[in-house]
Q: What sequence folds into this?
């Protein structure tokens, strides 16, 4: 089934509220296995894109510590971090993630 593409982009206050909501959902901890570092309030959440398009929604937001956030974008283990992010989000939002094009 084709889903309509809805792009949500937030700014300013709205994005910082979303940031807080994501950190709160993740108990202010990095979600990577064996890490669980505390996340500072001002650490920005990571966007895991569902279909190659960035959406400012809680279903695509995830808490990573600074190190793992860097790793997710620039590390040799980027793919593994991504896998863990997608697995984590898919457990919480199975409907949202079930048709995801995660290799894109
Ligand atoms: Zn990121
Ligand atoms: Zn971490």
A:
């Amino acid at each position: 089934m084709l889903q309509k593409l809805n792009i949500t982009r937030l700014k300013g206050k709205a994005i910082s509220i979303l940031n807080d909501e994501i950190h709160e959902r993740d108990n202010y901890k990095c979600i990577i296995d064996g890490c669980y570092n505390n996340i500072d309030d001002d650490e920005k959440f990571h966007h895991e894109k569902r279909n190659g398009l960035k959406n400012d929604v809680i279903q695509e937001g995830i808490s990573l510590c600074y190190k793992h956030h860097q790793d997710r974008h620039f590390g040799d283990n980027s793919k593994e971090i991504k896998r863990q992010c997608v697995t984590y989000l898919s457990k919480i939002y199975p409907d949202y993630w079930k048709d995801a094009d995660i290799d894109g």
Summary: The radius of gyration is 13 Å.
